[in-house]
Amino acid sequence: AGIVIACMNQKGGVGKTTSAVNLCGEFARRNLRVLLIDCDAQGNAATSLGVSKKNLTKSTYEVIMGTEPIASAIQPTNRPNFDLIAASERLSGVQVELVDSDRREYRLSEAIASIRTKYDVIMLDCPPALGFVSVNALAAANTVCIPLQCEFLALEGLAQLKNIIDRVHESLNPKLSILGVVMTMYDGRTNLAQQVVDEVRRFFPVHICNTPIPRSVRASEAPSYGQMLYEYDPEGRATTAYQRVAEDLIVRMNLK
Amino acid sequence: AGIVIACMNQKGGVGKTTSAVNLCGEFARRNLRVLLIDCDAQGNAATSLGVSKKNLTKSTYEVIMGTEPIASAIQPTNRPNFDLIAASERLSGVQVELVDSDRREYRLSEAIASIRTKYDVIMLDCPPALGFVSVNALAAANTVCIPLQCEFLALEGLAQLKNIIDRVHESLNPKLSILGVVMTMYDGRTNLAQQVVDEVRRFFPVHICNTPIPRSVRASEAPSYGQMLYEYDPEGRATTAYQRVAEDLIVRMNLK
Ligand SMILES: Nc1ncnc2c1ncn2[C@@H]1O[C@H](COP(=O)(O)OP(=O)(O)OP(=O)(O)O)[C@@H](O)[C@H]1O
Ligand SMILES: Nc1ncnc2c1ncn2[C@@H]1O[C@H](COP(=O)(O)OP(=O)(O)OP(=O)(O)O)[C@@H](O)[C@H]1O
Ligand SMILES: [Mg+2]
Ligand SMILES: [Mg+2]
Prior knowledge:
Two copies of one chain form a homodimer.
Chain A: E1 3-7, H1 16-29, E2 34-38, H2 44-48, H3 60-65, H4 70-73, E3 75-79, E4 82-85, H5 94-97, H6 107-113, E5 121-125, H7 132-140, E6 143-149, H8 152-155, H9 158-171, E7 177-184, H10 191-203, H11 217-221, H12 229-232, H13 237-252
Parallel strand pairs in A: 1-5, 1-6, 2-4, 2-5, 6-7
Antiparallel strand pairs in A: 3-4
Helix pairs in contact in A: 1-13, 6-7
One magnesium ion binds next to helix 1 of chain A.
């Protein structure tokens, strides 16, 4: 049954959506059946894939609230082996709406259970926060992929992120592990980027992926065309870096 | 009495902390008395200013919970006219802890009321979310400063942000207005940046600031030295751009 990966980091703008979309694209091209679930009310995953959010009545919100069966919220992305559950603004209200509800942390996990055998990988694109939706994602996940921007301020939240993963592992989900740390927006022009990578290697020696994703203007342009990197910039440096990371993660998950 | 500015955008990594810190620095150098309140559990404001968070027992969390008087949480930044209330990880728990509490949206507003006359500007650095703390900040604010990254995905959340500002204006805080939209990380190498600026000018014709902040490696290095831009890179393009924006905002607030 499918491996559930939470793509998470509470620091904003570090490349969670870009990593989730492009790693899923690379997994799907290698014939893995992939489902991407957007857990962020901003809904950037659908946009990045050129999937319209007009008339979106069945989204991650309805799945977590339990008002629609998860299977009915699944839509195609027009790439083979690659499905999506899009997010809408409504998702930012679930924390308050479910505050009194029993087993609220397991809503996503229980919903995913019914479709898990249809996919090899289920990726959860998380919001920049450690709130209710992120805890739901960690409770549902087998493993966590941590995109980390090669910038100084991105280091600050690492201990807190590790702490919450440990707490969820102890209380809600004993099978939770860390799959990998993906260094993003690596800018070779500055010493700082390498210093950040060295620091992260000390913090996550086993989990850090060896290939950093370089900062690339084309990576920030691709979403405006609704295209993934291998579609928009097939020979680009960020594209080949994501391909190497995808192959690394496939080996770590024993999916080869 | 002091003008309260919420520095806000639910999109992550768009330059909220960088803008809050550097605009405050420029206001303080022009002899305005400034207080920066970090409303983000990541606590990047203190780090950006070289202020230690060791033994931080009086932070934004205690202020919102009401367990410490706000005056006791104020600390100096070693720059004249510039004080700080730092944030700690504890802040990410307030939404659940205060869910049953009366007038919970007004906690920050009521706390600020007692020190408001000591400052000309009180800046609130918000987290990348539209949750409880952000609503508290909007309820306390006179006006909103919106940093907006010149990238395609940053456009997606604009309508939602405007929507929540309107809703808070109607229900919690009728005096709330928009002070300005600051375009950040403008990269002249790509057409996309100018297209984003043009789009934002259509959406916020009156509020957009004319000077975009250029993308600059030195801007991302300054926090690692605990320095503001005018201290780390006094002649830099991002530094002079923030100076122009600060002067523009001072005129808009009638503080000249
Ligand atoms: N390697 C890269 N080089 C340059 N720009 C990039 C790269 N990866 C992502 N970007 C751009 O940086 C911005 C932030 O990336 P993205 O939205 O994926 O981050 P995120 O962590 O999902 O943000 P949020 O915290 O808001 O969910 C986007 O505009 C994206 O297009
Ligand atoms: N003009 C700029 N040029 C280059 N890098 C910048 C610029 N402004 C900010 N940065 C860097 O971009 C990253 C994101 O900026 P910052 O942390 O201020 O954004 P934020 O919106 O506060 O993020 P969050 O959503 O996590 O609170 C930081 O590493 C910062 O140093
Ligand atoms: Mg995202
Ligand atoms: Mg910030």
